[in-house]
Amino acid sequence: MPVKSKSARIFDLPMPEEESAIQAGIAQDPDTYELTDTEFRKLKRSERPPAAATKERVTIRLSREVVARFRASGPGWQTRLEAVLKEWLDAHYQS
Question: 70: exposed, middle or buried (C-beta count within 10 Å: 0-12, 13-18, 19+)?
């Protein structure tokens, strides 16, 4: 049965007979159990650990061509852009 999420993603939920087979499998597994409502409320969301090197959020205006080429290189394009800037700094400002 297709269900639409708040973010417009579509998921196929199991049919009732599939759900009962899933629940039967869970019941037979000695290493798992379904949490009670009280246990579920006690769970805490794990947070991402703080990064060793923090970064500063800035706003910078770049040409569309530069941004388009870096974005076209795929995920991690901002990290690669930063690497290029660091390389330029190393070449032009010797400490």
Answer: middle
Query: What are residue 4's phi and psi, to 5 degrees?
Result: -100, 130
Instruction: Say how far apart CA 26 and CA 65 lie, in whole Å.
Output: 54
56-64 average pLDDT score: 93
Structural domain boundaries enclosing 79: 15-44+56-92
Other beta carbons within 10 Å of 26:
11
* CB distance 5 to 11 below 8 Å: yes
Q: How far apart are CA 30 and CA 35, in angstroms?
A: 14
- Residue 23, token pair as written in the block: 């629940």
10, containing H or E segment: strand 10-12
- pLDDT at residue 95 is higher than 70: no
Total structural domains in the chain?
1
Instruction: Measure the CA angle with vertex 48, ends 37 and 32; round to 5°.
Output: 35
